[in-house]
Task: structure prediction
Amino acid sequence: MNHTTANQACKAGPGTIVTGKWHSNTYEIVRPLGHGANGIVYLAKGKGGYSALKLSENSLSITSEVNVLKTFSKAQGSSLGPFLLDTDDWIRPGRAQPIAFYAMEYIQGKPYLDFIKGKGSEWIAVLMLQLLSNLQELHEGGWVFGDLKPENLIVSPDPVKIRFVDVGGTTIKGRAVKEFTDFFDRGYWGLGDRKADERYDLFAVSMIIINSVYPKRFSRNGDSKQLLSEKIEAHPFLKKQKRLLWKGLYGEYISAEEMRHDMLDLLQRSETPPVSRPVTPVKKQAAKKPEAAAMKRSTRRKKKNKLAGLLEGVLVMAGLAVLCMMYYFHILLP
Result:
């Protein structure tokens, strides 16, 4: 990984008050949420409630990330990432240089891998379809996410949505990727460069799917393609999607929408019942309501028994009639 330790000036303990120089908004630090190459993100409490507050000495990086968040906000009806709430400078007591910061929506939910672990692999495709839709909007806005990995994705409930939570690696198309994590970087695997383009993010999507079933990430060892192939072939879930995965890994998709279309098609085909084993409505009804079938069988038996009883009565009456006639003709008549 190319992440470096954040500057000591950005470290703040619980209870620290951050006051904006220009807007005068105040935030009380609650606890750290995460850190990257250019700052630390904290859970903070302000007059509007809780927010995620990022502190950084790199004002240019903060400006870039704020622009990304503004791009997210322009996507009407979208929930790509957190909403931007405030941006300002903090003059920390005892320090001459200001610390840049911005406050964004605090998204509550579960980290992506924790969600999959709890809900099961059937949710992988559902969430990846959402992720690819989000990436399509991001790419159309001229950006590449760059450091795309499960740690930067959170799944919010009611309804279930996958959201970006750290835009620190987001890069303008055509430039060198600012931040990356080895396992999700095509350069690390020898399958491409680190130029910010759509295919860079789509490579990471394939690796996120692989990471979903191999939570303990494996390192490059010898032939990268051979290793990835072995991992895909060894797992039934990945094996069913190997064509989609390899197209993502080899950069054959030209857009997130194209990859999403293939994934949706694969998901629909996997849900179609086999033609060779149809299940008739009668069988379904009997399986779902066995008591109804039993009642029908009992009714049929009662009808049969009743019919048999009537037939037996008719035969008895006929026999008696014959005996009476014989008695009349042979005994009573001279």
